[in-house]
Each structure stands twice: as structure tokens, then as C-alpha cells.
Amino acid sequence: MKRALLLILAVFVALVATRYLTPASSVRAATPVKGDPKMKWNGEKVVKSDDEWKKQLTPEQYKVCRKAGTERAFTGAYWDNHEKGTYYCAACGLPLFSSETKFDSGTGWPSFWAPIHAENVTNREDNSLWSRRTENVCSRCDSHLGHVFPDGPKPTGLRYCMNSAALTFEKE
Ligand code: FE
Question: What band does 28 get if pLDDT is binned at 50, 70 and 90?
């Protein structure tokens, strides 16, 4: 009887501990969780160690997403993709771009004139390579996606120049 009570107490303490010791703002998902293709980022972060990212991602994805690398033009999976569907973050699965805003930029990288939601893609100043550019990262997991330039088509005039390796496409 005493043992059963102790066990119940232990389970209770463990439950309380996991509820309060895990920060609500940090989600540790083993694999990318793809939800609603129109999902707006809710402010939660996906935080993983460098080793965890290395294990989860392919070497090419890791280089682009976590080390801000750039794939060679015309080599990625999506620059010439004309299918209807949604482009998710390759690292965490947050929906980022829709085929509805994709256009042929001629650059050899998948290009869009707007993200699905402004909240889902974060802009960062990038002063590397002796130039001033605006880097784009996934708002949820901070993975590098590409850069945004002010020479895109209407209606926004923006060109989100993305790496295929930072995206996973799902057909509508
Ligand atoms: Fe992400």
C-alpha cells in the first residue's frame, strides 16, 4: 500500500516536473511536423543542438539551413518546379511559400514574390561578402533560407531567392 502511494506520488512529481521544467516556447520535435499549409507562425521556437540538426538533416540541407550555405544555381530540386502546392521549411516543417507566389526569376533558385505569411519568414541584415543583403530565416527554427531582393515582380516588387535545400515541397 505504501509502495503504491509512493509510486503515485513519483508519477505526479514527474508529471509536474515535465510540465514546468520544459519551456513552453521551445518545442523539440524529432522530425519536421507539417501542419496546415496555411498555418501562421504562433511564436513558438524549435530549438535543437548542432548535433541534433546534423543527425536530422542531409549534409546539403545542414550546410544551407544551419551554416547559411548557398546551393549552386540550377542544381536544386525546385527552381524549375511548376507543380501546385506548398513549400515547407526543410528543418522544422513550417509552411513558408506557396506555388501561387512562385515565379521564374531566371536565377536558378526557387523564387517567390511573397511568403505565405509575413510572420513565417524573418528578415535579417546580412553584411557578408562585402555587400548589404537581407537574409531570410525560418521564424520557427532560425534556419537559413536565402535572401530577399527589391527587384521582384508585382504586386510586392520583392524577390525571395530561396535555396531548394532549405525547402520541402508538398503537392496540393
Ligand atoms: Fe524552420
Answer: very low
12 CA to middle of ligand 1, Å?
Answer: 34
130 CB-side CA count, 13 A: 0
Residue 73 backbone dihedrals phi, psi, to 5 degrees: -60, 145
CA–CA dist 25, 46 (Å, integer): 8
Dist. CA 47 → ligand 1 center (Å): 10
Positive/negative CA dihedral, 101, 102, 104, 110: positive
Is it the case that residue 34 has pLDDT exceeding 90?
no
Q: Examine the residue annotation and report whether 89 is marked as an active-site residue of this protein.
A: no
Give the whole-angstrom CA distance, residue 164 versus residue 87.
Answer: 9
Q: How far, in Å, from the CA of 107 to the mean position of ligand 1?
A: 24
**CB neighbour burial string for 93-102, b if at least 16 within 10 angstroms, e if fewer:** bbbbbbbebb
Q: Which amino acid is at 25?
A: S
What pTM, to 2 d.p., does this model score?
A: 0.81
